[in-house]
Specification:
The chain is of the alpha/beta class and 428 residues long. The protein has 17 helices and 14 strands. It has a seven-stranded parallel β-sheet with strand order 3-4-2-5-6-1-7, with helices on both faces. The protein has a seven-stranded parallel β-sheet with strand order 10-11-9-12-13-8-14, sandwiched between helices.
């Protein structure tokens, strides 16, 4: 199958060829035809499967075929959960629309809104946005969604994880009821299906791979280790293996910063990305990671969502996620486009239940290894880390003696987080 056989226009085929592509990926082959037919689509696709082009290409085709004579207005809205993902989707739109009379721009928080507003005033056809900045500018009367013909909700599952449901509902109300809707998600959970029913009209459902299936070419391994020895173990693995590009996942912003400092003090160039980092700092860290000046990028799940890092060889779960599907998202960062990759998880006693749930989800037992000098604590409890500790305290069990007096602070932080939901669209 070729892109031409899908019915895309010549200008788009020219742009696709310029990027060096000739054969559509499975999700592209399945999603593009129904989108071109004007149907609503609910698509399941993991990161790295080419899903962005799966909606970008047909969207641009439809807009260019149905030219609008009035002053340029926002005819297509692509809503994404994070700034990094928004920037990457916009880059795709720009590249594929190179030979079309289509204007596009991207807006997100964390940066000055004036340049974004100036571009919007000049008129754009396609807007890529994060929820907070979009609603903020709409509330100020600086943009209008009254002429949206196509609405794309990208990474819908992560949108829900980040608490953007109300923002999505708000956006729905300020767009025309008659429009085409496209929804892309890595999973088809009950919450996602419920959201889909509220947005989509008689959708065509497509999947690139069996739901929640881990990438087969990824070599997965678990190191059983005492919680207090994790930092020394990860430094040993990276140093002894002389690994040059490693993406490390941590549950919390505080934990990511702490681990990053430890690595730097051990002679490993590292940087952390999360919601407390400025957009400039995050962009600089990602650029350094891609060009090799930074060996290790320590990230929280939400900050890492949508990162486009080709041929990433190593992913390490410094802490297992308590949501099994997030493990699939994490390890999907490596082993892309048929390349081999390695995913390592450092598992302490209190993460035993998380590991069991992950193995059940991916329907396989992960190889377990114990390194001499880094053995797990035989006396440690296997009681799961409580969600409250997991997300807000960042140290799990064993931190009880340090957490006294912090419950009010944690509650306050959660309330502040909710109040910032509209204006800080990438909290982690």
């Amino acid at each position: 199958m070729s892109f031409k056989s899908l019915g895309l226009s010549e200008p788009l085929l020219k742009a696709i060829s310029k990027k060096g592509y000739d054969t559509p990926s499975p999700i592209q082959a399945k999603a593009i035809p129904p989108v071109l037919e004007g149907k609503d689509v609910l698509a399941s696709a993991q990161t790295g499967t080419g899903k962005t082009a799966g909606f970008t290409l047909p969207l641009l085709h439809l807009l260019s075929e149905n030219t609008n004579q009035r002053r340029r207005s926002i005819r297509a809205l692509i809503l994404t959960p994070t700034r990094e993902l928004a920037a990457q989707v916009y880059a795709n739109v720009k590249e594929y629309s190179e030979f079309l009379d289509i204007r596009s721009t991207v807006i997100f928080g964390g940066v000055n809104q004036k340049p974004q507003v100036a571009t919007l005033k000049q008129g754009v056809d396609v807007l890529v946005a994060t929820p907070g900045r979009l609603i903020d500018l709409e509330n100020q009367g600086l943009l209008s969604l009254k002429h949206v013909e196509i609405f794309v909700l990208d990474e819908a599952d992560r949108m829900l994880d980040m608490g953007f449901l109300r923002d999505i509902e708000r956006v729905m109300k300020i767009m025309p009821s008659k429009r085409q809707n496209l929804m892309f998600s890595a999973t088809f959970s009950k919450d996602i299906k419920k959201l889909a029913y509220s947005i989509l009209n008689n959708p065509i459902q497509v999947e690139a791979t069996p739901e929640n299936t881990a990438v087969e070419v990824i070599e997965q391994k678990v190191y059983r280790v005492a919680k207090g020895k994790k930092t020394d173990l990860i430094i040993k693995l990276i140093t002894d293996g002389n690994w040059k590009q490693v993406l490390v996942f941590n549950r919390t912003k505080h934990g990511a910063n702490k681990l990053c400092k430890k690595m730097i003090s051990s002679g490993i160039t590292a940087a952390a990305i999360h919601g407390n980092k400025s957009q400039g700092a995050r962009t600089k860290a990602l650029a350094g990671f891609k060009n090799g000046s930074i060996r290790v990028l320590v990230a929280t799940d939400i900050a890492a969502r949508g990162l486009d890092i080709p041929l990433l060889p190593h992913v390490i779960n410094f802490e297992l996620p308590n949501i099994s599907e997030d493990y699939v998202h994490r390890i999907g960062r490596t082993g892309r486009a048929g390349a081999s990759g390695e995913a390592i998880s450092l598992v302490s006693a209190d993460e035993t239940t998380f590991l069991r749930d992950i193995e059940k989800l991916i329907d396989m037992k992960i190889e377990v290894e114990i390194l001499e000098g880094f053995e797990p604590d035989p006396n440690a409890s296997t009681e799961p880390i409580k969600p409250g500790q997991n997300r807000n305290q960042g140290r799990g069990r064993g931190a009880n003696n340090r957490n006294s007096g912090k419950s009010k602070s944690s509650s306050s932080d959660r309330n502040k987080s909710k109040s910032r939901n509209r204006n800080n669209d990438n909290r982690r």
